[in-house]
Fold each of these.
Amino acid sequence: MALLDVQDLVIDIPTPNGVLHAVSEVSFSVERGETLAIVGESGSGKSLTSLAIMDLLPRVAKRRAARLTFEGTDLLSMAEPQMRKLRGNRMAMIFQEPMTSLNPAYTIGNQLMEALRCHEDVGADKARARAIELLERVGIAGAERRLLQYPHQLSGGLRQRVMIAMALMCKPDLIIADEPTTALDVTIQAQILRLLHDLKKEFGMAMILITHDLGVVARVADKVAVMYAGAIVERGPARAVFKAPSHPYTRGLLNCIPVPGRTAPGTPLGAIRGQLPNLIGRLEGCAFRDRCDFATPECAGQMRYIPIDASHDVRCIRVEAQKAVA
Amino acid sequence: MLAYTIQRLIVALSVAITVSIVAFFLLHLSGDIAVSIAGPESTPAQVEQIRQQFGLDRPLVVQYLDWLWKAVRFDFGNSFYFRDTVVSLIASRIPVTLTLGAISLCLSLLVAVPLGVLAAVYNGTIIDRLALSFSVIGQAIPTFCLGLGLIILFSVTLRWLPVSGASTWKHYILPSIALGWYAVPAVMRLSRNGMLEVLSADYIRTARAKGLSPRVVIFKHALRNAIIPVVALAAVQFGFMLGGSIVIEAVFSMHGLGYLAWEAIARNDFPVVQAVVLILATIYVGLTFLADIINAFLDPRIRLA
Amino acid sequence: MSNIAPSIDPATGPAQFDVAPARRSPLSAFLRRARRHGGLIIGASVLLVIIVAALAAPLLAPHDPYAQNLAQRLIPPIWHPKGTWEHVLGTDKLGRDYLSRLLYGARISLLIGVLTVAISGVIGTVVGICAGYFGGRVDAVLSYVITTRLALPVVLVALASAALVGGSLEGVIIVLGLLLWDRFAVVTRSATQQIARTDYIAAAQAIGCSTPRILFMEILPNILNALIVVATLEMAHAILLEAALSFLGLGVQPPLPSWGLMIAEGKQYMFFSAWVIGVPATALIFLVLAINLVGDGLRDVTAPENRT
């Protein structure tokens, strides 16, 4: 049984101009200890997907799905008090902006201990001990002193480590990391990713890593799901997707990245022409067709997933035609 | 924090001094004070005598410095109208005004802050609309009209509360409501907006993601940050209330500082008027200084800078 | 590249990809939003009624507002059993018709509101724009002036000044005009600061536009939105303050029909004839409410992000 099973997740947001279909029929699953990377550009709906799993969507957004289960329990019909027992406890989330994700009015220690004590009945000293242990585990020296500090006294990289420690306080089964390194310096990004990867292994957690950075994906992900305009256009084992990208969007993304040693200097970097479509109103067909070199009139019709391999499939009816050209 | 405090203190002191200059020259700009004191039927000789008696023939700057020098020692001279020193007059009246101001502030905070928090938490719903409408309508009612209305309703029609005076605690109920009323819309809107802003902050999202209960999220995480500007505003509003109590004291015939000022103004009792303006302004400056310090203290980012 | 597809019906048609929105002029967009703002509509309507009533007072008033008739003192309004149609809103302690005094009183309130705001608006805007545009020392000095003005107990100083100047309509207007400029200054200062740092101002300076030209032609039009909102709200403030001053006997003097004065004159009768203060009080509340609704509404419609 998969740890997290999502089938046909839909997120709609009513606007004055009509209903915005932010996420359309997204399906994926995550096994215990597995890392799934959800890749896509801004506006692809990846963050909303993760918020939907935790039921943290903004009030105006409406979610529905054929299936949304965690450890076999249905999340869709779960009442809020039960959801609260799961959040931070069995599934935890790390957000993108470490600078603003911690409450400036309380100490680090206070916020860390609170994460544990709201779920487990432990004394203050036990909570404190666990906080120190986790701070050290995420690589923060002088943990005892840090407990008494306020968020503004720490750098961005340190704050993100604190966020990670906070997410681990209850030893969750699933961690959702929404662009955990985007707001950080490039040099720190690698460290944080490495840290997440090691911790995941050590604690035996599953992880959903949301990112727009393909380089990140290659290093840490077991599975990849590529999202575009609210739908998953390609998914499969990371290696397979990278070796044989089958959706024009995925290939376009990979083309944009210069590879040291392989891309000749002076080569123009690939770019995907066009821009994200307007997602208001009924959607039919492939959202990518206006930017695709292989599009045909058929692409405006019903879409389906074409399998490439055992667990690798792609939402494109022009797969064969692409292969011929590639 | 210390440097910040000292800086604010210097600003406060210099503003207080500037205000004292304004207060002093304001009255002297009206023309010849000696003439007003002497009265319309006085002879030039009498006017001249008065001028010398009160030292009004000295250069204005000298008069000002003399006045200020005595003022910091709480010597404001004698009242022209009342047979008493200005200081003892003020001392006897100020408790009423301070009590009135304090009760009004407490009442308005007790109403405005919860209302603002509710409006923010239930943003967009009927509760929010009601709170906002209440604030709009509240601001349109002049304080003296409200005072009179309250008297008609509670004192005359229902006979629950006394009409005027300031002797028992019952006498303070209606005036406090009338005086505090005006501050409610501003405080409520500030609480509401502060809460709204805070509730959409990232750290609230983090708190929810940790699985904390709504009560903890609102009271521990959100309110603690949203209340900071409200505290500062409350201090300032207290200052307004002290200054604006003049109207309420007139309506309810309460013999406080405002009432004294009114009587003094009507009778051209300059020493009293100058003293009251200076004292009220200094209290106000002190309150804004206090508000700044409280603000800074409550925000760890400034406190530990 | 841009696909302008045919008809879009969000309910049934296919989704649009790449459609540019139709162009609308700012004025029609403004009117469209204004029409939907309930508060603004109500406020503007009431205000319009009051303005028309005030302007047409000589035509509408059934009696001379100053004509005394001691035989007909304190007649209650029409909804009272003792009321008569000759004096629809009753008479005051000197037998003067209340409706007529109310109408002429509207003139006084509006006059005070408009003139006071004109004076304080000019002072405050000049201070604010200079502080915001020139920054540095100028800003430091002007901000200090604003802070000092804010430290003064306004009601008290207004009272004292009005008494000194002698209670009169002109006196009140001048005193209030010279005192109530602080909000103008604060708002225009921050609005100017935001604009002064934009690129088009830098461009204007680069091509050698003279400072007064920049201030008038570039900055002023852009802060006009905020300015109008503050003006309406300060108008209400001025009207309330004048009513308070007149109530305390130090504002407009009798026999002028200021609503505040009418309330003061009626105070002694309020125990038995509540309408003596009720009628002018209600008029005052309506006027101030209408102005506030218009001010809030304008702010919501022109710049909702500034909602406070």
Note: Chain B has one domain: 90-304.
Amino acid sequence: MKRKIICFCMAALLLAGCSTPAEPSSKAGESSSSQASSQAAGSQGGEEADPWAEAAADPWAAYPELVVYTVGKQAPDASYSVLDGTEYEGDDEANNIRTRFYEKHLNAKMEVAFSAAAGEAYDQQVSMAIVSGEIPDIMMVTDRATLVQLAENDLIADLTEVYDATISDVTRDIYESYDNRPLKDATIDGKLMAIPGTCIDTGAEMLWLRQDWMDKLSLSAPKTMEDVEKILDAFVNQDPDGNGQNDTVGLALSNSIYGKYGSTVLYANNVFTACGAVPGQWYERDGEVVYGSVQPEMKEGLKILADWYEKGLIDPQMAVRNFDDSTALLVNGQCGAAFGPWWLANYAGQTHLVDANARWTPYVVPTGEDGKVTMFTNNPSENYLVVRKGFEHPELLIKMLNYTYDYTRFSEHKNEDECLEFENPYDSAIYLRSLGPISVNLDYFDAIDRAYDDITAHQAGEEVDTFPWVIQSAELAGAAMEKLESGQVADIGIYEMISYYGRCLAGQVLKENPVNVVYPVFFGVTASMQTKWESLSKLESETMLKIITGEQPLDYFDEFASTWKSAGGDTITQEVIESISE
Amino acid sequence: MRNKKEQGAFHLMLLPGMLILAVFSFLPMFGVVMAFQNFVPAKGMFGSPWAGLEHFRFMFALPDSSQIFANTLLIALGKIIFHMVVAVVFALLLNEIRVAPVKKAVQTIVYLPHFLSWAVLSTVVINMFSYEGPINQLVTLLGGKPLLFLASNTWFRPVVIATDVWKEFGYNSIIYLAALTGVDPGLYEAASIDGASRWKQTLHITLPSLLPTLLLMSILNMGSILSAGFDQIYNLYNPLVYETGDIIDTYVYRVGLVQRQYSLGTAVGLLKSAVSFILIVGSNTLANRFAKVRVF
């Protein structure tokens, strides 16, 4: 008897769980759908044709009835309770500025299937969803391996047709600024399986130097490798901070030494590319696809770094420092030289609060034989949005993408209150891409260059038709420049200084110094990589660090290269070549 | 029969615990079949293709597997031995303190690091052993040359073991302190009447009384012989000391980063459990035969 009651209760619970969510929401949708359809172009046709098919084919049209979709998304790093006491009190992950915007324009309502903090926690949620075979209608995945896994398991929808049918012109144009490389990356067996987020061009990595130290020691701007060495030597041995102690560090360097270009600070990528090497990348060398780290050109770069390390020009403790320890050297004024992209300004922009004399200048160095710096690009797609196979409205994702990156940013509506609010929700108190289902970024490949042009134009007093944040950066940087001029250094806020260094100084040298670009050709994972790559990359990072710190002689590199090839590297290279030719 | 009836209520109280054990410990054990499959999540345990012993073969065929196993064993053994020695000596010394507030204060202070995670403590350790840190200042004071301990293949293992012992010895000594309070005071009285010194009392009364606990702890510790402490090593190592510091767990972690390799992870876990099981049962049998002490 008891058992029967329990069974009944459980069954009832299950049923209740299935049926409740749909009902109350359909009512809320009715009011918004009328507004939305009046705005949407092409939906005036009305009843004659199938309103559903019509809505599906239009980049902007709202659905005739409320559509409820579930989403797997990254959680914001701040809690919604920061909104308490503001007009937005009560907003949450399922109901906020961005979800209401989509609901109003598209008559589609979001429900959160799962939400987890970015990083491992989120990836685990995705794994769990894959394991259970039940993924949300729209979900973000952070790496291509997972995307391939989803496609192989037949869990996600083919978006080729809906993409072509529903994408808006500007959105298509953004992808085209990358020669459609992100879309090719998201294509598996000729089918577009995801909407990729884009990875904008960070520009060249620069050598950031303490200008005040250089002035004090009367050093001129560097150009070649020898110039850099001379400056580092002076920074280490001539007491640039003038405290009478031999306590300054030369070049701050990550213990990974090199890596994804522009993705983080403190890599020595430029030292290697100046020697003709392309470390850690699959690229075409003399018409043949090879792995950069085992090519003979690497030796030249290693020789320079090992020499610098021996002379004490590189932070002697770089092997044991973690990222925070190393960047702290820049902030606290102990170190005056580091490689990094334009946003190294995030660290450099704090030094003046420790030492009021501190001024950083980025230099596009060291140049190679042709007098230019060589950079390499990254995987053009950063992450992916996928749609569950069997979801009735796969085009919804693309319509939301149009609204997020075209309607609110480039259309004539962009200065309406609703769009401004959408672009800067809650004044950045909550990370904007954690708000709705569109958690990927989409921007022009040369977005940084465009921003620099707009900022300089705004500062020159021109009327610029651009994003509010660009104007804001221009004004922050302008404030920093004024205070520098009048000597009120202590009053310069961190963001003012960061905008000045990153947007103005770095933007300018990047524009003035054209660079050579190498486009690596492969970013994925091959079959043998799954089992052999870790041993190989362990061998690689161990070898590079040992040669630089002098634990092994330079010629050990040849031994490393041949071990790498015989321990699976050759097989993997073959697989990469096959995978590219497919 | 009567006995059983009286104990019925107790068995009922035991039931929830046994259920939890079954659901969370016994049922998931069927998951070990993943170690013998090429597990594809969407196909599940019943649909994934079988791989036989491939993952185990792969594990042993790794070019650096012998090095990783050696590192794991050496670090784990070092930790087990020094943890026990230091904790016992500390418990004995603490037991000699007769001023209760001092004893309590010392006890509380040495427990503290146990409650901090390695993510936090690693920063402390890295700074202690840096060029400017107190350890190197001491080295220079004694006329030595400053040394990067955490980048040296000679020093990495000792530093890992020493810092872990420092973190845990206070907490580990609790069980020995408890055993010490259980020693019959009459024995000490009798011994002192017989003229035994403090040292003789320790040697002939305290240590023999601690023996069962010591054996029990060593048998249980055998289970962790292939776990050298992921958190600690992951936070302290760098590529320069892969040679002496890379352990099974850190290696598998990095392999898993390349792509989620469920089956390999399970195979490694299964192997670790099998070795631990053999060692626990083996040492329990030995202890039973030679010292008449057994855990189960």
Note: The CA atoms of residues 448 and 577 of chain A lie 33 Å apart.
